[in-house]
Design brief:
By secondary structure, the chain is of the alpha+beta class. 44% of the residues lie in helices and 25% in strands. It is built from 9 helices and 7 strands; from the N terminus they run H-E-E-H-H-H-E-E-E-H-E-E-H-H-H-H. Strands 2-1-5-4-3 form a 5-stranded antiparallel sheet, sandwiched between helices. A two-stranded antiparallel ribbon has the order 6-7. It starts with a helix and ends with a helix.
Amino acid sequence: KEMLRTTIESIDDLVFSINSTGVFTHHHSGNKPMLSRFLPENVTGQSIKDVFPSDVADKILDSFHKVNQSQKPHSVEFSLEDQGNKYWFNSKLTLRKDVKGNVPGITMVMSDITENKNIYKELRVSQDKLSEAQSIAGLGSCDVVFPANKWVCNEMFFKLLDIDNQDKMNDFDEEKLIEIIHPEDRTRFRMTR
C-alpha cells in the first residue's frame, strides 16, 4: 500500500475517483500548483456538473457513459479559464474495479496539456508564415516522411513542376520526380540519394 500511495503522490496529474452516479469520492491533486476549482474541498462530494462548467461537464459525462457502456478507457480534451488564463486538459476515464471485480465507479486522470497546445499553436503560426514566405518567393518545398516514404509537398512545388492533377499530387513519390527530371540530370540526381 505504501508503494501505491507514494507512486500516486509522485504523479503531477490530477486523479479522481468518481462513483457510479458521477460524484467525486476521492481526489489526488498532483504535486504541482492547480486551479482553485480542483482543491479537495471544492471537489470531494460534488458531481461532475458541480465542478466543471456545463460544456466541459457534458463532454466528461459523455466520456463517463462511453466508458460504462464499452468498458474501455476513453479520453476527452477540453479547456478551462482561470483568472484570465486558458488551460488545456486531457482526461482519461477508466473503469475502477474493486478486489471482487465489481465496478464501483470510474477513475479519471486529468493531465495539463496547456504547454503542448501553446507549442502547437506557435508551430502553426510559424508554418503559416513559412507558407506565405514561400508563396511570395515562388519557392516550392517537399519533405519525405520516413519510413513510409511519403512525399509531402507544398502547392508551389507542384505549380513549378506544372502538375495540377490532384491524383498525381496525392500519389507523388521519388519515381514520379525522376520522370519529370531532364534525362541528362537523372543519373546525377540518383547519385545524390
